[in-house]
Amino acid sequence: MPFDIPEKTRYKSDGTPRRVGFEVEFSGLTFDQCLATVADHLGDQVSRTSQIEATVRNDRLGEFKLELDWQFLKDRARENAEKHELIKLVADVASSVVPVELICPPIEFDDIGALDDVVGALRLMGARGTDDSFFYAFGLHINADIPDLEAGTICRYLKAYCVLQEYLVTAHAIDTSRRLSPYVNLFKDPYIREVMGYEAPAIHRIISDYLAHNPTRNRALDMLPIFAAIDGELIDRTLADPRIKARFAFHYRMPNCHIERP
Predict the structure, then answer these.
(1) Are residues 170 and 110 in the same domain?
(2) Is the pTM for the entire model greater than 0.85?
C-alpha cells in the first residue's frame, strides 16, 4: 500500500468493505499503446468495442475500460467499423489533445496498490498528464463509496467539504487549465451558507437544495450519483442528463492528473 487508511474509514455502516474507483485521463500515447500496456499488466481477457474503446477484464479486480474521451469519434467508430484505418488515423492525431481515459472498477482500499504497476508502466511508455501542456485540463476522478445514505452522514460530508474546498485547491496545486475548465467548479457561497446552516435536515431537503444551487455535473465534488441512487426520478425530472449514473459513491473531480510524476 502506498499509504495507510484508518481502519474506521475502511468499512460501510453495514460492515462491508468500502471500495473506490478511479478515472485517469492522460495523453502522450496512442490508444493501441495504452491498450497493450493495460492488457499486459491487468488483462485476463481483452474485448475491443471499436478502434478507440476496449475493456480489459482482470479476474480478481474486475473490468477496466479504456477509451479515447471524444464522444463524436466514439460514435463514428461504432457506426463505421469497416473504416477502422481512417478512425485509427484520426484517433492517433487526436490523441495529442484528446485524453485517453482509463476507467477502473470499484476496488477495495487494500487493492489500490495493484494499480501502481499499470500506472508506472504507462508513465514509462510516455503517458503525460496535466503538467505537460497548458491545454491538458486532464483530471483524476475518484469515486469513493459513501459509508451509508443517512441524511446525517451526507450532511457531515457536505459540511466538511464546504470548509475544505478552497484548501484543497491549494493543496492539490490545481493547474491553471484545470481551474479554467468548467468541470471542476467549486460550490458557491450561497450554497455553502445553506449547508453550514443545516442542523438535522431531511434527505429530500438536502437533495433539493443541492439541485437548486448546483443543477449540473460540473462540480469538483459531484453529488449527483449519490442523489440519483436515493431519488433517481427527481434527478431525471430536474436535469434529464443521461450521463448521470446512480451509484453509492462520491464523484470527486478536483485533482489534476499527474501520471507523469513518480
Answers:
(1) no
(2) no
